[in-house]
Amino acid sequence: MNNYRTTYDAVGGLEGLRQITEVFYTNVQKHPLLAPLFPEDIEPVKDKQMKFLSQFFGGPSLYTDEYGNPMMRARHLPFPITPAHADAWLDCMRRALAETDLPGELQQFVLDRLSGPARHFVNTTNEQET
What we know:
Mean pLDDT: 90
Order of helices and strands: HHHHHHH
Radius of gyration: 14 Å
Structural class: mainly alpha
Shape: globular
Low-confidence stretches: none
Number of helices: 7
CATH superfamily: Globins
CATH architecture: Orthogonal Bundle
Helix content: 55-70%
Distance between the termini: 38 Å
Largest sheet: none
CATH topology: Globin-like
CATH class: Mainly Alpha
């Protein structure tokens, strides 16, 4: 990542994030724990995720420009998110990153950066709510 100004640049900018997001949500839609949390029409979710990741990784503030302050924890509160959900989400992202040609060190960096927010969204430990 040393030759890049931001993680956004290192992953290939918006096009790189679009590719990662596509594969990620393909994984999510197949995941028995995660799929029920998402709408059947996943396209708007993919678009929001890509825009959020753009600014999260140092690119244009596309999400904030369109939707305002991300307030991601608050936006996720209506959904029961357990530690198992966070782990599953991170695993889907790990698998999506593994399908890219990004260096392993960069893949791990991206995953590490996303681990904090994924765990921050946990709002219940009650597996029965899922």
